[in-house]
Design a protein that fits this description.
The chain is an alpha/beta fold. Helix content is 38%, strand content 17%. The protein is built from eleven helices and ten strands. It has helices at 25-30, 48-63, 78-90, 108-115, 125-129, 134-144, 157-163, 185-192, 212-224, 247-260, 269-281, and strands spanning 19-22, 33-37, 68-73, 93-99, 119-123, 148-150, 176-181, 199-204, 231-234, 290-294. The chain has a six-stranded mixed beta sheet with strand order 1-2-10-7-8-9. It has a four-stranded parallel beta sheet with strand order 5-4-3-6. It binds pyridoxal-5'-phosphate. Pyridoxal-5'-phosphate (PLP) binds at residues 48-50, 78-79, 153, 155, 180-186, 265, 268-269, 296-297.
Length: 298
């Protein structure tokens, strides 16, 4: 599996993703600067935070001599897609444990992952809820042998460390950095990578995602032994819940595309961006605030 200069056995070392300032009269009115950290451009096959979250995990898997990666996800998981692509690039086997039943024909994501050679296994929802418990993992080991396990969404300590490298790539002084929150690994890492006085603002894409604050705290504790106090999660812009959209979100996406020529991913990035603009227009950011919005994927 070759792609633009990436040879089998290596992921390719991306350049720091570009930082692009957004020009918009609403920003000028509020006296706020907004710069996009274009992580969606970081890697052609492993874009955005998925590349950052996998980087150290893939190194660890290789150093432990693993030849198989196993992970979990829903049928539309960007993480499962990224793991399949990484396996193809590195020449290791991949197994995707998918929540729920098989639906044929496969959707675009699952068709793409099988195209990368990923083996798909379906797990009923009750067992899936217990996927991090020893009995379920033991059964998978009996069935598939030795594998490197990546949790759902790829959020573990090594993923947090990968995401924590993002802030240091930004060479413009800023006050607030924003990202969408799915499982919280990205926010946990970004917040840990900030300098004194900077804050991270996560936008939950889940309905009822109040538990996410505990997950972010747990990830930071597991990684660093402590929780940083420089982050917060906003729950007001999920637009109905995970992979749900509503008319307001669609209108925001169309308007943004018209103004800036950029079609925002509606599952994650558009929800964050809509939140940033809504908060800004309600005066939540003092004049002079410099905001970074992490475009976590395409
Ligand atoms: C997976 C994903 C997220 C969620 O990241 P978490 O670390 O799980 O919170 C955000 N944005 C995009 C584009 C993603 O694909």
């Amino acid at each position: 599996m070759c792609h633009r200069g990436h040879r089998q056995g290596e992921l390719g070392q991306p350049q720091p993703s570009p930082l692009v300032e957004l020009h918009d009269p609403r920003l000028s009115r509020a006296g706020v600067r907004l710069l996009l950290k274009r992580d969606d451009l970081i890697h052609p096959l492993l874009p955005g935070n998925k590349w950052r979250k996998l980087k150290y995990n893939l190194e660890r898997a290789a150093s432990l001599g693993h030849e198989t990666l196993l992970t979990f996800g829903g049928a539309y998981s960007n993480h499962v897609r990224a793991v399949a692509a990484a396996g193809a690039l590195l020449g290791v086997q991949t197994i995707g444990v998918i929540r729920g039943e098989e639906h044929l024909p496969l959707n675009d994501v699952l068709a793409a992952v099988t195209g990368h050679g990923m083996r798909l296994v379906y797990m009923d929802r009750t067992t899936y809820r217990a996927k991090s418990t020893t009995p379920v993992i033991e059964e998978l080991r009996q069935r598939f042998g030795r594998f490197y396990l990546l949790p759902e969404g790829g959020s573990n300590e090594l993923a947090v460390r990968g995401c924590a490298e993002l802030p240091a790539e930004i060479d413009v002084p800023f006050n607030v950095i924003c990202c969408p929150v799915g499982t919280g690994g990205t926010l946990a890492g970004i917040a840990a990578g900030l300098s004194a006085g900077q804050e991270a603002l996560g936008f939950s894409v889940l309905r009822g995602g109040q538990f996410l604050a505990d997950d972010v705290a747990r990830l930071q504790t597991a990684t660093y032994g402590e929780v940083t106090t420089n982050w917060v999660i906003n729950h007001d812009f999920h637009s109905g819940g995970y992979a749900k959209r509503n008319a307001q979100l669609d209108a925001f996406i169309d308007d943004f595309a018209g103004r800036h020529g950029m079609k925002l991913d509606w599952v994650y990035v558009a929800k964050m961006m809509r939140g940033i603009f809504a908060l800004m227009e309600s005066g939540a950011f003092p004049k002079g605030t410099v905001i970074i919005a992490v475009v976590t994927g395409p």
